[in-house]
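Troubleshooting log. The previous structure file for this entry was overwritten by mistake, so regenerating from the original sequence record. Sequence copied from the archived sheet and checked twice against the printout by T.R.
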Amino acid sequence: MAAPAASKAWPPVRFVPAYLQRIGKCLTFGCNPEQTRVAASIVRDITERSHYLNAAAQLHLMRPDLVVDRLRVPANPLSPYQVDRRTQETGVDTRPNWQEQAQSSAILAALAEKGLPQLLRYAQETAPAEFQSDWASYINSSYMDGGFRLYSSNVQVFKIPQFPDTVSVYGRFALANGRVKTFQIVQTIWSHSRMVPLGVVTSALRPHIAGARPWLPHIRRLVGETKEQAEEAGAELRDIANRITWLEKQTWDRADAVEDMGAAKK
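Regenerated output below.
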């Protein structure tokens, strides 16, 4: 994996299934005790750290009070709208793809909304003292009275949610390219049961302010706040990838390798 650029987030990391498959292929060719220990340590790091590394490498704020951590989502969170009667009776999802995607977007947007208040409060609490009252007004006032307006919301669905599930919601601030009056809050919804990001929700907010934008320098500072953390997470991701490559070269990726536990070799 290439190192993340200093000013950019990694793309959403969906490495877990592929990494586990690569480790499984190594095991099918037989591992000595040391190789087995390494394989077990990699699997442990992936299962315990994948959600953190995914979020940190994308520049998300990782302070515990800024994360919606391990939220239990029940089955049919949009019930009775998520599934029709035939699906309920047969247990087979009969929704066409467009409906499935639309309802998945609505679910992810609702989950992301749960994380917006604490992110905006964090922006207010960390703003320079002379702008604290401005930020309080932005957050608590109506748009016509100077508050923020949700200018747009974009949902990217990576995986169709399957509930019940336990999810975490991570967020970060970003500048909206080409829109000087707008900033963004980007949130990733992570599935702990599937160990993949379900999607990303990007909310663009615009204050009802004419002229000066005292919030802009503070947003720029918040955007740069997590760069070091992202670089550290990127280094850890590269280390996991390197350990898997080492394991492959010690097992199946050798001239004398012989598969002994099934048809893993391709």
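The first strand starts at residue 68 and ends at 73. Archived copy saved in two places this time.
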